[in-house]
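Morning. Coffee machine broken again, so started the prediction first thing and wrote up yesterday's gels while waiting. Chain of 149 residues, entered below exactly as on the submission form.
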Amino acid sequence: MNTIRSATLNDLDALTRLLDGYRQFYQQPSDVDAVRAFLRQRFGQADSRILVSEDAEGGLTGFVQLYPGVSTVGLNARWTLNDLFVLPECRDKGTGRALMEAATQLAHDHGVARLILMTQVENERAQHLYESLGWQRNTAFYGYLLDIK
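Came back before lunch.
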């Protein structure tokens, strides 16, 4: 059984490998140095919350990353669940579900009113997990992106 806990700077090497794998899942080239720098920045600025799953031997098997935000309309906190990744060999063992449940509990413990996330339309596996945990697909709003370079 995996243990879910908050990531620390001591997890940087293992978490770097996980995040690099996550990016490759989304067709991004491997860039371990950039990923490490990105994670160092997250830890340094404390602008995200990262939970990791750890196996019995202490190896990291997955992570979830949340970014705090607020809702002007709701006058409350909301967090964006931006990233969820489980090593391919650890999937279908409840790790993703455990990470999602831990993220929900962490948000609840911090008085967060809503979690939000986006996933690729083709990522039916993740959609099934989210919906099995009570997440509802947003049909009231369109999402838009603008790349700023």
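Residues 95-109 form the longest helix (15 residues). Going to sketch it on the whiteboard this afternoon.
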